[in-house]
Design brief:
With 688 residues, the chain is an alpha+beta fold. The protein folds into two domains: 3-97 and 363-433 and 477-683, Collagenase (Catalytic Domain), CATH 3.40.390; 135-331, Neutral endopeptidase , domain2 (Neutral endopeptidase, domain 2). The protein is 51% helix and 7% strand. It has helices at 26-31, 66-77, 89-109, 115-124, 126-132, 138-145, 150-161, 198-201, 205-224, 230-247, 251-254, 266-272, 278-285, 298-310, 313-328, 334-347, 357-381, 384-407, 413-424, 449-465, 513-530, 551-569, 585-605, 619-630, 637-646, 652-656, 663-669; strands at 3-4, 86-88, 169-176, 179-189, 263-264, 293-295, 427-431, 487-489, 494-498, 633-635. A four-stranded mixed beta sheet has the order 1-8-9-7, covered by helices on one side. The chain has a four-stranded mixed beta sheet with strand order 3-4-6-5. Helix 3 crosses helix 4 (115-124), helix 9 crosses helix 10 and helix 10 crosses helix 15. The longest helix has 25 residues, at 357-381.
Length: 688
């Protein structure tokens, strides 16, 4: 399971309002629409040393709430754009990435036959898209309606699943966790249209309102497709999805690498999950003849098969048709598109306005042909000097992690030796792939948006299928260079940092090193330490899921992680809604470790010298400002509620408060007993 620094582009939480605040600096005010070049080429893009000091709220003490102290001024004076459900530094960079990618696509669009240009043109021709209405998906809908029984229906569902339409179960190809030298077919729970099982099952007034709105949305989509009796049919589909949700594992259960590793043979599916035509489904999905399959949530798959068996075929047909309409609504006429956004964008996430069409077009083409664009993006926007500087930072942080491992008192010597061997075997990937993906087999037609999306999805699915039986492609990337994110991949024992995250406020070659170490350095440390978090620690130096810690190590580690779960469980970002410490544990461990090792790496970089005082700040203060600055974000309540229910990352406000556990932060900012964020030394969680 790959772990990223953020989920999509969602992070951080709304901060409290305070009476006094500083005005935002001109530099950051401009940065709200994208980082801008400083007038002085030798100065950082943000502030005097890489952090916007004017965006603080100095009426709050650091020991009361370090997020509000470091970011409160920005929070109070920066509106969330109308087309965003949350907004912060990740979004600032995402907007910049979209603008840069647009310039590439605009040029490509002038040349008929250029695939990315043709794809983008097909999206941007709104008049042609509107004129077609639902016609492009009519063959899909007709094929579903024409089926006479459940077996025939499942065959059609599988065909559509290969074209990007969600199915009852998820199917994909990945490395075998216990034999990472081979690829295997994996299956897992899927099939619901709301973000999490809690949206169907939890007793909560806000969620009940969403459930009602969701049924109205389903009915509206059926009506737009020309289907009669829409409300009754939508209610039946909702009840079916509720049955699926009831069978689903919780997200906390689903993050356990041991519990989600379950081998089933083809015969096991019929025996353990009866009621679903597995043989026909596997054939249509192109995954027959495998010696075994990995099933992530066995009881959920069994439960989903029962729901399928108990549901009348006409309801299953409606369910499948709605899956098509939901998946392809963004590429159909505006009535479908706007209806889809009204629910998923506004009702579910609180976003008042849809993004302008060019942004959606850029995102669509980037998602389908990201490396074709990425090759041009890197050549234009990622200089070799940035890659070299990032390489050095990664090496320094890995070295700091090694020192931490060597000096651990709670880990057995034999486990330390294996941990250091695992660290030494790391593969860091910086900026962009060494080998670019080949899209020559993908057919793109300038006037066929839905067809382009369907073919791109099928191309990607078939590309994955072709991995079966082949050697592991260790050069493969799972993010594009334009992505504002990073990830750790335990079965590859690698950490990956796309080009687009290696810029301010995360990394600026002209900023003070302390800020860079607190920003991108801590992100690097975060991803490295994922390989030693509560799940990543289960993978050895070869990426194999195996038990290589002593039982005593595991027991000691659990004492620390239980304390961290309890600490985050206590946070209440919305009234009555707490962070789920068990769900966010892996990310919270990574934040804690990332900051710890980045701090060590920063001090090592000083070479025994004392950091200079800049604008009245010490090096340690600037380091922690760097961390606070990257999580400068605010939320709409609906989006924050969704994140608290489904996101394995804590909101940014609480991610900043990781500093409560770090002794040097107390020395840097003078937090005192009695202040809200103060933790007594005995209560600070120290793992690494």
């Amino acid at each position: 399971m790959r772990k990223s620094i953020v989920t999509v582009i969602l992070l951080a939480s709304a901060a409290s309002a305070f009476a006094q605040t500083s005005a935002p600096s001109p530099t950051l005010a401009k940065a709200a629409k994208g980082p801008v070049a400083a007038k002085d080429a030798n100065k950082p893009q943000i502030g005097d040393f890489g952090f916007d000091m004017a965006g603080r709220d100095t009426s709050v003490t650091p020991g009361t709430d370090f997020f509000d102290y470091a970011n409160g001024g920005w929070v109070k004076t920066t509106p969330i754009p109308a087309d965003r459900s949350s907004y912060g530094m990740f979004h600032v960079l995402q907007d910049l990435s979209l603008e840069r990618t647009r310039t590439i696509l605009d040029v490509s669009a002038k040349t008929p036959g250029d695939k990315v240009g043709d794809f983008y043109t097909s999206f941007m021709d709104e008049a042609a898209v509107n004129a077609k209405g639902a016609t492009p998906v009519k063959p899909m809908l007709s094929a579903l309606k024409a089926t006479k029984d459940k077996t025939a229906l499942v065959t059609e569902i599988a065909k559509l699943q290969r074209q990007g339409v969600g199915g009852l179960v998820g199917v994909g190809v990945s490395q075998d966790d216990k034999d990472p030298t081979t690829y295997v077919v994996q299956l897992g729970q899927s099939g619901i249209g709301l973000p999490d099982r809690d949206y169907y099952l939890k007793v909560d007034a806000k969620l009940a309102t969403i459930r009602t709105a969701y049924q109205a949305y389903l009915a509206r989509m059926l009506t737009l497709a020309g289907e009669p009796n829409a409300a009754t049919r939508a209610a039946a589909v909702f009840n079916m999805e509720k049955g699926l949700a009831t069978a689903h594992w919780t997200r906390i259960e689903s993050r356990d690498a041991d519990k989600t590793y379950n081998k089933w043979t083809a015969a096991d599916f019929a025996a353990k999950a009866p009621g679903f035509p597995w043989a026909q489904y596997m054939t249509a999905m192109g995954v027959t003849g495998r010696p075994f399959y990995l099933v992530a949530q066995p009881s959920a798959v069994t439960g989903e098969a029962k729901v399928f068996a108990d549901t009348p075929v006409n309801v299953l047909q409606d369910y499948a048709m709605l899956k098509v309409l939901r998946s392809y609504a963004p590429y159909l006429s505006s009535d479908f598109d706007k209806t889809n956004f009204a629910f998923y964008g506004t009702t579910l996430s609180g976003t008042p306005e849809q993004q302008v069409r060019w942004k959606r077009g850029v995102s669509t083409v980037s998602g389908a042909m990201g490396e074709a664009i990425g090759q041009q993006y890197v050549a234009k926007y990622f200089p070799p000097a940035s890659k070299a500087a990032a390489d050095d930072l990664v090496k320094n942080v890995i070295a700091a992690m090694g020192e931490r491992l060597r000096n651990l008192e709670w880990m057995a010597p034999e486990t330390k030796t294996k941990a250091l061997a695992k660290l030494a075997a790391f593969t860091p990937k910086i900026g962009y792939p060494d080998k670019w993906r080949d899209y020559s087999a993908l057919q793109i037609q300038r006037g066929d948006l839905v067809g382009n999306v369907a073919r791109a999805n099928a191309f990607e699915y078939d590309r994955d299928l072709k991995k079966l039986g082949q050697p592991i492609d260790r050069a493969e990337w799972f993010m594009t260079p334009m992505t504002i994110n990073a990830y750790a991949n335990p079965t590859m024992n690698e950490v990956v940092f796309p080009a687009a995250i290696l810029q301010p406020p995360f990394f600026d070659p002209k900023a003070d090193p302390a800020v860079n170490y607190g920003g991108i350095g801590a992100v690097i440390g975060h991803e490295i330490s994922h390989h030693f978090d509560d799940q990543g620690r289960k993978y050895d130096l070869n990426g194999k899921l195996t038990d290589w810690w002593t039982p005593q190590d595991v027991a000691r580690f659990k004492v620390f992680t239980d304390a961290l779960v309890k600490q985050y469980d206590a946070y209440e970002p919305l009234p009555g809604q707490h962070i789920q410490g068990g769900l966010t544990l892996g990310e919270n461990i990574a934040d804690l470790a990332g900051l710890t090792v980045a701090y060590d790496a920063y001090h090592k970089s000083l070479g025994g010298k004392q950091a200079p005082i800049i604008d009245g700040t010490t090096g340690d203060q600037r380091f922690y400002y760097g961390w606070a600055g990257v999580w400068r974000t605010k939320w709409r309540d609906a989006a924050l509620q969704q994140a608290l229910l489904s996101d394995p990352h804590s909101p940014g406000h609480q991610r900043v408060l990781t500093v409560r556990n770090l002794d040097p932060w107390y020395a840097a900012f003078g937090a005192k007993p009695g202040e809200a964020s103060y933790l007594a030394p005995a209560n600070r969680v120290r793992i690494w």
